[in-house]
Design goal:
Largest sheet: 2 strands, antiparallel
Radius of gyration: 28 Å
Number of strands: 2
Distance between the termini: 88 Å
Helix content: 55-70%
Number of helices: 8
Structural class: mainly alpha
Order of helices and strands: HEEHHHHHHH
Strand order of the largest sheet: 1-2
Shape: elongated
């Protein structure tokens, strides 16, 4: 491990040592992988909130008495919280191997060079063999070139999720367009029982 650390420190580039570049790209790759795993876990809850928001834009909850609307909102939000907690509980931490694999894929590196850096050779009886191994690692380090982590892939997994997300977003956009300036008030009235819907005329006395 000491020899690898020495090689990493000794290998320099225009933007700093390879060790610093690797550490920076690995942090970026870890963040990218975390986002890619977190986003699918958030999608069901966001879809549930989006569905209720759509109902509010269509003024469906507003037709209920305030007491029933309070029960409905509390129950729906509780269900959303339960779903979010369940999905987040299934997340697992990324491993160093997955992080390096992401860098290799995003950087177009072949033959798993980052995985090879962690290889430990069998005990070498001759000094010449050690020198050859060090030279091999040095060539491997020099061949890495520009390292990248890429951007998170936020497209929903599976055809069904993609269609559902597209339909929901389109429906929300159309409903907001139809509601116009009343859209924020309709949404608030749907989530806050007792709040007046802007499209409901206030009572007046002649």
């Amino acid at each position: 491990m000491g020899g690898l650390k020495h090689d990493l420190t000794a290998s320099t580039a225009c933007d700093g040592t390879l060790a610093a570049r690797l550490a920076h790209v690995r942090r970026h790759a870890a963040l990218v992988l975390h986002i890619e795993r977190l986003w699918p876990a958030l999608q069901p809850t966001l879809a549930m909130l989006g569905a209720y928001t759509l109902a509010g834009l269509l003024r469906l909850p507003q037709h209920l008495p305030d007491g029933l609307r309070l029960i409905g909102v509390a129950g729906w939000l509780s269900l959303c919280g339960w779903r979010l907690r369940t999905d987040l509980g299934h997340l697992r931490a990324t491993t160093p191997e997955e992080i390096d694999r992401r860098i290799e894929q995003a950087s177009g590196l072949r033959n798993r060079p980052l995985a090879s850096l962690a290889d430990t050779p069998a005990p070498l009886p001759h000094a010449s063999s050690t020198i050859l191994w060090q030279a091999h690692r040095q060539r491997l380090l020099a061949s890495l070139g520009a390292l990248r982590a890429g951007w998170p892939n936020l497209v929903p997994n599976g055809r069904a999720r993609q269609i559902t997300a597209g339909v929901l977003v389109l429906a929300l956009g159309v409903a907001c367009g139809v509601a116009g300036s009343s859209a924020p008030g309709r949404i608030l009235a749907a989530f806050i029982p007792g709040r007046d819907d802007p499209d409901v005329p206030l009572p007046h006395i002649d």
